[in-house]
Design a protein that fits this description.
The chain is of the alpha+beta class and 133 residues long. It has helices spanning 12-23, 40-49, 63-67, 77-86, and strands at 2-7, 27-32, 95-98, 101-104, 122-123, 129-130. The strands form 2 sheets. Strands 2-1-3-4 form a 4-stranded mixed sheet, sandwiched between helices.
Length: 133
């Protein structure tokens, strides 16, 4: 199995998700989405395939989001996608794609259903243990 993760190494959720995928023994393509952001169509597909709405894929609590007025409920999905494409830091992370689907790894355990069974317990940076299913 192969996985692709849209990763921000400064984000603990992203680091923990990447470590969890590697713990599962999966070959992982790491895409630093701040340097190499997905295109608009690719981002829209990730969001759709993860079963999310566009608003769930934007970092609503980010100061830049507030400064740009992206919390406005009248903004269209197209406007939000455009904002995430032009300012990738606004994209919630990490998105993970495997042959079993796409998930937003927030929390990291959200990707477990698109990974093979874990070989044993996994410990997050904060000491929390994720038990194999």
């Amino acid at each position: 199995m192969h996985a692709t993760i849209y990763h921000n190494p400064r984000c603990s959720s992203s680091r923990n998700t990447l470590a969890l995928i590697r713990h599962a023994g999966i070959e992982t393509e790491v895409v630093d989405y701040l340097r190499h952001p997905p295109g608009r169509d690719q981002l829209a597909a990730l969001i759709r395939e993860a079963g999310l709405g566009v608003r769930a894929a934007i970092r609503a609590g980010d100061a830049k989001c507030a400064a740009l007025g992206l919390g406005d409920p009248t903004l269209s999905d197209d406007a939000l996608l455009d904002a995430m494409v032009s300012e990738p830091i606004l994209m919630n992370r990490p998105f993970v794609r495997t042959g079993l689907g796409v998930r937003l790894g927030r929390p990291p355990e959200a990707v477990l259903d698109i990974l093979p069974p874990l070989p044993g317990p996994f410990t997050k940076e904060n000491g929390e243990v994720v038990a194999p299913k």
